[in-house]
TrEMBL record:
One term of GO molecular function: urate oxidase activity
Pfam families (alphabetical): Uricase
Annotated source species: Dissoconium aciculare CBS 342.82
Sequence positions that bind O2: 57, 254
Any one GO BP annotation for this protein: urate catabolic process
Any one cellular-component term (Gene Ontology): peroxisome
Region of interest (Disordered), ranges: 279-302
EC identifiers of the protein: 1.7.3.3
Active site, per annotation: 11 (charge relay system), 57 (charge relay system), 256 (charge relay system)
Annotated localization: Peroxisome
Protein name: Uricase
Primary enzyme class: oxidoreductase
């Protein structure tokens, strides 16, 4: 007999914008994309065509809008937790609520040397990410992150001493271009309830800013021996800076820039120390991933 061994459902790509009108006449804006997914006593919709326990995905979407009106949307960790816990409170047959939030950049414009009160710039595709899983009677797991942060350094990166055998063609290098699109996330110690998350709300923005600076500073300053080592140094520093973070994940593509031999054209020198013109590669790319946990924390790869 086939069995429904896992099911969840919800609304993805719910786009929400909220404005905050401040007393001094300035305005703040937040634009986000939300995904909600619910688990619980819902199997009979799949197996018996009985929808009585189905909170329609449209209802979930309307709830996102109502919660965004009734509650702060910043920090996104708090908003996602409010939303997830609302689903558990409102629907006794729902046992797990997953909420993810992607916050898009709207950076205040500087006009005539002054921050403009109500005009903003989309300065890049980088997003702030939050993933919350609230389990009935078990607490709320919050994961925060950065995605789409594209960086490049034109020197200060090496890669040598790697394993060589009959399949190896890559030469060793002590000076190469390093470029990656940072995806980083950090998992918070599990929260027992929404009040604890509310109490901690200041720490989420602070940690996001620190994680972003650590990522950028380490990328720029280290003479990197490998993407692997660089991401480990970043992870260690985030754990040191945020005592309530239990683990840090990085996913870093290695976006290659190939040297071009132009010696066929009048003996032009464009390799090694003479390399100036390179061919950026869209694919394939290296892909380096790791999870760094605090001492004693266990981890099983999925
Ligand atoms: O930093 C790197 N790590 C690797 O594992 C690797 N492999 C490769 O071809 N280039 C690189 N660079």
């Amino acid at each position: 007999m086939p069995q429904l061994s896992y099911a969840r459902y919800g609304k993805d790509n719910v786009r929400v914008y909220k404005v905050q009108r401040n007393e001094d006449g300035t305005q703040d804006v937040t634009e986000m994309t939300v995904c909600t997914l619910l688990e619980g006593d819902i199997a009979e919709s799949w197996t018996k065509a009985d929808n009585k326990n189905i909170v329609a995905t449209d209802t979930q979407k309307q709830t996102v809008y109502v919660m965004a009106k009734l509650h702060p949307v910043n920090p996104p960790e708090l908003f996602a937790s409010i939303l997830a816990n609302h689903f558990l409170k409102q629907y006794s047959h729902i046992s797990v609520a997953h909420v993810s939030v992607i916050v898009h950049r709207w950076t205040r414009l500087v006009v005539d040397g002054q921050p403009h009160p109500h005009s903003f710039l989309r300065d890049g595709d980088e997003t702030r990410t939050v993933n919350v899983v609230a389990r009935r009677e078990k607490g709320t797991k919050v994961t925060s992150g950065i995605k789409g942060l594209l960086v490049l350094k034109s020197t200060g990166s090496q890669f040598w001493g790697f394993h060589r055998d009959e399949y190896t063609r890559l030469p060793e290098t002590t000076d190469r271009i390093l470029s990656t699109e940072v995806e980083a996330s950090w998992v918070w110690d599990e929260y027992a309830n929404l009040d604890d998350i509310q109490r901690d709300q200041g720490v989420f923005n602070e940690t996001w800013n620190k994680a972003r600076s650590i990522t950028l500073d380490t990328f720029a300053k280290e003479n990197s021996p490998s993407v692997q080592n660089t991401m480990y140094l970043m992870s260690e520093q985030i754990l040191a800076a945020a005592p309530k973070v239990q683990s840090v994940d990085y996913t870093l593509p290695n976006k290659h820039y190939f040297e071009i031999d132009l010696s066929w054209f009048d003996g032009l020198k464009n390799t090694g120390k003479d390399a100036e013109v390179y061919a950026p590669q869209s694919d394939p790319n290296g892909l380096i991933q790791s999870t760094v946990t605090r001492d004693g924390a266990s981890f099983t790869s999925s």
